[in-house]
UniProtKB/TrEMBL annotation:
<dbReference type="GO" id="GO:1990904">
    <property type="term" value="C:ribonucleoprotein complex"/>
</dbReference>
<dbReference type="GO" id="GO:0006412">
    <property type="term" value="P:translation"/>
</dbReference>
<dbReference type="InterPro" id="IPR052990">
    <property type="entry name" value="Sulfoquinovosidase_GH31"/>
</dbReference>
<keyword id="KW-0378">Hydrolase</keyword>
<dbReference type="GO" id="GO:0005975">
    <property type="term" value="P:carbohydrate metabolic process"/>
</dbReference>
<dbReference type="Pfam" id="PF21365">
    <property type="entry name" value="Glyco_hydro_31_3rd"/>
</dbReference>
<feature type="region of interest" description="Disordered">
    <location>
        <begin position="1"/>
        <end position="20"/>
    </location>
</feature>
<dbReference type="Pfam" id="PF01055">
    <property type="entry name" value="Glyco_hydro_31_2nd"/>
</dbReference>
<comment type="similarity">
    <text>Belongs to the universal ribosomal protein uL18 family.</text>
</comment>
<dbReference type="InterPro" id="IPR005484">
    <property type="entry name" value="Ribosomal_uL18_bac/plant/anim"/>
</dbReference>
<keyword id="KW-0326">Glycosidase</keyword>
<dbReference type="GO" id="GO:0004553">
    <property type="term" value="F:hydrolase activity, hydrolyzing O-glycosyl compounds"/>
</dbReference>
<dbReference type="InterPro" id="IPR000322">
    <property type="entry name" value="Glyco_hydro_31_TIM"/>
</dbReference>
<comment type="similarity">
    <text>Belongs to the glycosyl hydrolase 31 family.</text>
</comment>
<dbReference type="InterPro" id="IPR044112">
    <property type="entry name" value="YihQ_TIM-like"/>
</dbReference>
<dbReference type="InterPro" id="IPR048395">
    <property type="entry name" value="Glyco_hydro_31_C"/>
</dbReference>
<protein>
    <recommendedName>
        <fullName>Alpha-glucosidase</fullName>
    </recommendedName>
</protein>
Length: 918
């Protein structure tokens, strides 16, 4: 268990508005040492059936991992002459305030930055597994310059502390190699620790020279001034039994990169697509208010410790990346870690703990690498059709408000999937605006006739969605309470505890809450009963909020390390909700539930139905506004979060006499346009509804909302295909252009300017106040023709263009391929149609269900559903397309897919007739 000192900062009312970066261990570099008499100049080792690890002693020694048969391409390699495994011992402090966390190193007691490689050999882990590769040696400290890379003999300078390490590579699947690093106990102790402030290469050489050497090392060998590092043989079972490391609590894995290599992923990142040059911590927490955008970050930091966050803080990190060189890696486990990408030529992973485990992935394209990743961590289940069929309307205020807005939307024939009523539990006013009573039962005063309203909406095929989270608040100040859930959970002893054994009261704005301990065997069952009562009323979905705030000094029923449990908690929270959904749906065929979350970690996509991006500011800014919503959408998609969306209009507003952030009408309209091309089209009134422009504020906003809800519905047929593809392959619905154009350098540089929906729709939203035009980049590809939906103009080649939207109110520019071919086969008939996507109308169609054709086929005793029937439909459809002067259609199938059966029969007839398929 990793020990962290914790300090609470939530009690401070005035704070530093410009907090400094945390003091942490910098990027550690050391030399690689080996005996050329023991290790050959070059050696190839098979790892399982499909991988090879190459050892080369040239240029100081290095490793290179390749996937057979492409042995010329390295998917992972070390830097020649540089240590690839290092270790340290340090004290760590976590500063915490209302879901925001800062990790810093206070005392660096030992740094073993140099490394020896003494042995590389295959080992048999068990009779049933392929041989693994074991690398053994020692990491040791020493003054800078005292170690010559490539030489085992260390002369003139004293060795500092050292410890043995074991690194194991083994094949996990045909495209994945696992790795594990562990350490033994170091042989030396320090007389005096030194701070991170002075730690650097000069400080490192000076301070580590003071290490007091023991007369006898851990191995039993006397250490002298002139030393040849020699180690006794260790048994392989030391690796398999995971012998604990008692003192070293930092593991560093260092490997090569390229200056031009771009790094994508790392979970839901809001400021950057390419994280090269950054230090990326893997810690679930509040994303922050402003995240560097000013002046809001200044103000947030001033009134609440580090509440502003920074460009890397996020609700949903993931220790996974894909690079522009088609390299990919992820870490297993839940320990706090940092990916240091600040050096142009290398990557360094710093793991806080005594073991490092992960996997290296092989793939030829970004989408392949996403498939490899998600086949292991898990993929989302297909979303129910109802949630992606129309708008999810977020409202507050009670039954009468819902009925009034419903009447207005009906008058405009707005497609509605659901009403999302987060204030179903009642509402309280706090210092940040309107918040909810965290007691998960309906407030029958606010929502009188609750069940009747749900039944009326259900009769119109509109669902009702609500809100809950894993925290419970005391209800002493609330009237009209049925069940006091906090007191129930406290009596059952299922709340997270503090060090004194009582419920850990977690600060949240103006009130404190207890947090459910889902490591307790009774907690999940108890909470599922709350969800059961909710859906018994007719509710069919909910926001499963929070999950990022487990205190790192909490005491859990399981006794597990709270810093590790902190990153795991959002996954446990998602799993509880998922288990309830599956249990409920198993006894109700044809019915479905949906929940959506903001907090997550690596495996969250397996459990959550859907994600949303949390609380963006109601602003145009890049780090925490409408632009950051696009970056978060695309980065999370690369990281396995295939279904994601943001609140239309953003959430966080500030309304003070001297300081205001309020949602303007223009911002609201642009966010509607943006979100019409995401997985879910959902509104939110924000934390200060009365200060914000709302979709129902006036006729203009209501009309615009209705129009874009219809546009959202118009591409439902394609959205259904993308949702299915996501559940089968892990591909996100909304995609950065890098995923389909990995060789296009300009596409690599894009952040929020434009994105793809699937592979066929290119969206370039207007994200700047007062802008009348957008710049659009058309990527280069085979047979690419992009059609501007609003004007009909075709763009045939790679180019950059300034595109003026034709109507002032519609400042989103959308390009997609021309007419779209759809096919549908039943057990009786073959159906094919071509849809004009801008108007969602059928341009041409043919079906064996047509009366004249069906009677003629029946007369000739021909089947209306087989391959021959499909060929006949293809020919008829081709003739009708030619009659309409439609020369080309888009086929929404994977370009590499080979067509078979009825699909092939239709497509063959179209191509034979001269219809171009795009």
């Amino acid at each position: 268990m990793t020990s962290f000192k914790t300090s609470k900062k939530h009690h401070k009312h005035i704070n530093n508005p410009f907090p400094s970066n945390p003091k942490t261990l910098p990027l550690i570099q050391g030399s690689l040492v080996f005996d050329p008499k023991t290790l050959p100049p070059h050696q190839v080792y098979d790892i399982g059936h499909d991988f090879q690890l190459n050892w080369s002693s040239s240029n100081g020694g290095s490793l290179s991992l390749c996937r057979k048969p492409n042995l010329s391409r390295s998917i992972w390699s070390t830097v020649p002459g540089r240590a690839f495994v290092s270790a340290a011992a340090a004290d760590t402090e976590v500063q915490e305030s209302r879901g925001s966390f800062l990790v810093k190193d206070t005392n660096i007691r030992l740094v073993c930055n140099h490394q020896t490689v003494d042995e590389i050999r295959l080992i048999q882990k068990s009779d049933l597994e392929e041989p693994a590769l074991l690398i053994k040696g020692r990491v040791f400290s020493g003054k800078r310059g005292s170690v010559d890379s490539g030489s085992l003999e260390v002369v003139e300078k004293k060795l500092g502390a050292y410890a043995k390490y074991w690194m194991v590579f083994d094949q996990k699947s045909s495209d994945q190699v696992g790795f594990q690093v562990r350490f033994g106990r170091p042989n030396s102790v320090r007389e005096k620790a030194f701070s991170a402030r002075s730690y650097g290469y000069r400080g490192f050489a000076r301070k580590l020279g003071r290490i007091r050497r023991l007369r006898v090392g851990w191995s039993g060998y006397f250490l002298r001034k002139r030393v040849v590092v020699a180690f006794p043989q260790e048994e392989e079972n030391m690796v398999m039994k995971k012998a604990p490391c008692l003192d070293l609590n930092r593991i560093f894995l260092t490997y090569s990169s390229e200056r031009s290599e771009r790094f994508y992923g790392f979970g839901e990142q809001f400021s950057h697509m390419d994280l090269k040059g950054k230090r990326v911590p893997m810690l679930v927490q509040e994303q922050g208010i402003g995240r560097g955008d000013q002046p809001i970050t200044f103000a947030a930091n001033l009134v609440s410790y580090r509440a502003g966050g920074d460009e890397i803080t996020t609700y949903a990190p993931s220790p996974f990346y894909i690079t522009s060189k088609m390299r990919s890696l992820y870490l297993e486990g839940y320990n706090y870690s940092v990916f240091d990408l600040t050096n142009d030529e290398l990557v360094q992973i710093q793991m806080y703990g005594d073991m490092l485990e992960g996997r290296i992935l092989n793939g030829n394209s970004p989408l392949e690498l996403i498939e490899r990743f998600t086949e292991t961590i898990g993929r989302p289940q297909e979303l129910p059709e109802w949630i992606i069929s129309g708008a999810v309307v977020g409202l507050q205020g009670g039954t009468d408000v819902v009925r009034d807005i419903w009447d207005q939307l009906q008058a405009m024939e707005t497609p509605i999937s659901a009403f999302w009523l987060q204030d179903w539990v009642g509402q309280r006013n706090t210092v940040i605006g309107s918040q909810l009573w965290w007691n998960w039962e309906v407030d029958s005063t606010r929502y009188s006739g609750w069940r009747q309203m749900i039944e009326e909406l259900s009769a119109q095929k509109i669902k009702v969605m609500t809100y809950c989270n894993p925290c419970l608040a005391p209800m002493d100040e609330k009237k009209n309470v049925g069940r006091h859930l906090f007191e129930e959970a406290k009596k059952l002893d299922i709340l997270v505890k503090d060090k004194n054994g009582g419920p850990y009261m977690v600060p949240n704005t103006a009130f404190d809450v207890g947090m459910l301990d889902f490591t307790h065997p009774k907690a999940a069952a108890w909470f599922k009963q709350i969800l059961q009562e909710m859906v018994d009323d007719g509710v069919r979905g909910w926001m499963a909020d929070f999950g990022e705030g487990l205190p790192v000094d909490a005491c859990l029923y399981s006794g597990e390390d709270p810093i590790t449990a902190h990153n795991r908690y959002p996954e446990i929270w998602a799993r509880v909700n998922r288990e309830f959904v599956e249990e409920w749906e198993s006894s109700r065929p044809g019915e479905s539930l949906v929940f959506f979350m903001r907090a997550g970690f690596r495996d969250s996509p397996k459990w959550a139905s859907l994600f949303w991006e949390g609380d963006q500011m109601v602003s145009w800014q890049a780090n925490d506004g409408i632009k950051s919503a696009v970056v978060g959408l695309l980065s999370s998609g690369i990281s396995g979060y295939a279904f994601n969306h943001s609140d239309i209009g953003g959430y966080c507003a500030v309304s003070l006499p001297f300081f205001k952030y309020q949602r303007s009408e223009e911002l609201l309209l642009r966010w509607m346009e943006l979100n019409a091309f995401t997985t879910v089209f959902r509104t939110h009134e924000g934390n200060k509804p009365s200060c914000n422009s709302q979709f129902y504020s006036n006729q203009k906003t209501l009309s615009h909302f209705s129009r874009f809800a219809k546009i959202y519905k118009a591409w439902k047929f394609y959205r259904l295909q993308l949702v299915k593809e996501a559940s089968e392959k892990g591909h996100p619905v909304c995609r950065h252009l890098f995923l389909h154009y990995p060789k296009d350098e300009h596409a690599h540089k894009l952040r929020y300017e434009q994105f793809l929906v699937g592979s066929e729709i290119l969206v370039a939203p207007v994200l700047d106040k007062g802008k009348e035009v957008v710049k659009v980049y058309f990527p280069q590809g085979e047979s690419h023709v992009w059609k501007h939906v609003w004007t009909g103009k075709l763009h045939h080649k790679q180019a950059k263009m300034v595109v003026p939207p034709p109507v002032r109110a519609e400042r989103v520019t959308k390009f997609l391929k021309p007419y779209v071919l759809r096919m549908h086969f039943t057990n009786k008939y073959v159906n094919a149609q071509v849809v004009h996507t801008p108007t969602a109308t059928v341009a041409a169609a043919a079906s064996t269900q047509e009366k004249a054709l069906r009677l003629a086929m029946e007369k000739e005793k021909e089947s209306t559903r087989d391959v021959a029937a499909a060929a006949k439909i293809g020919l008829i459809l081709a003739q009708r397309l030619q009659a309409r002067n439609i020369p080309a259609v888009t086929v929404f199938y994977n370009r590499d897919q080979k067509y078979h059966g009825k699909v092939k029969a239709v497509i063959d007839q179209l191509t034979n007739a001269g219809v171009e398929l795009i």
